[in-house]
């Protein structure tokens, strides 16, 4: 069973999550030859004040 974890800075709408879930599931299914029903996807929304790039918080960029 493939497990996929996606982490994003900030919030996504339900519609965005649905689109990501479908697209990623389709790609993994095709590339790995696994049935879509076996693919488990986690979408983690991280607060923009909890992520830094190059020493600067994302929310300050």
Strand content: 25-35%
Spatial order of the strands in the main sheet? 1-2
Q: How many runs of DSSP E, i.e. beta strands?
A: 4
N/C terminus separation: 38 Å
Q: Mean pLDDT across all residues, rounded?
A: 97
Structural class comes to alpha+beta
Features of this protein?
two-stranded parallel ribbon, 4 strands, 31% helix, elongated, 1 helix, 61 residues, alpha+beta
Summarize, please.
By secondary structure, the chain is an alpha+beta fold. It has one helix at about 15-30; strands spanning about 5-10, 40-45, 50-55, 55. The chain has one domain.
Give me the secondary-structure topology.
Elements: E1 3-9, H1 14-32, E2 40-46, E3 52-53, E4 56-57
Task: Walk me through what this model shows.
It is a single chain. The chain has one helix and four strands. A hairpin with a 2-residue loop joins strand 3 (52-53) and strand 4 (56-57). Strands 1-2 form a two-stranded parallel sheet. A two-stranded antiparallel ribbon has the order 3-4. It is an alpha+beta fold and 61 residues long. The chain has one helix at 14-32; strands spanning 3-9, 40-46, 52-53, 56-57. It has one domain. Keywords: Isomerase. This is 4-oxalocrotonate tautomerase.
């Amino acid at each position: 069973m493939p497990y996929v974890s996606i982490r994003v800075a900030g919030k996504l709408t339900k519609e965005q999550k649905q689109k990501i879930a479908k697209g990623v599931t389709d790609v993994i299914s095709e590339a790995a030859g696994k049935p879509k029903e076996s693919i488990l996807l986690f979408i983690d929304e991280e607060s923009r004040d909890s992520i830094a790039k190059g020493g600067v918080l994302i929310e300050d960029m």
